[in-house]
Amino acid sequence: MFEWKPEYSIHLPEIDAQHQRLFVLAAELHSALTKGKGYTVLEKCLANVVDYTKVHFATEERLMAQYGYPDRSAHKAEHDKLTAQVLELQKTFRAGDSNISLDVLMFLKDWLQHHIGGSDQGFSVYIRGKLAA
Q1: Yes or no: domain 38-132 corresponds to CATH 1.10.287.3510
Q2: What does the pLDDT look like over 11-28, one tens digit per residue?
Q3: Which residues fall within 8 angstroms of residue 116, CB to CB, at 6 or more apart?
């Protein structure tokens, strides 16, 4: 379900490495869920995804600011929305909603594929252009 594919690369090594790490963390969460691991393990896996997502977004936002990315506000707003959604899923999970597991996995899969394949690609083209100049 969470497998890094070369077509996900945005050709910025630092960001690609972080995206790959997010895939690994999401795969660990998926594995814990499918193996019926207990609440503590699941909560830790989910917290790892949430925490690393924040680190990743901060890196992207730093690069956008550094290189004057013109769509920075819109991209940051997308990050803020995604962060709020992940935090809400985490809150629901911590409140004991056992149905949240599938929602979390589907959300993560959709986000990883569409955010990386969409807005991150545009961000990457701009940054790579600046680096080549």
Answers
A1: no
A2: 999 999 999 999 999 999
A3: 8, 10, 19
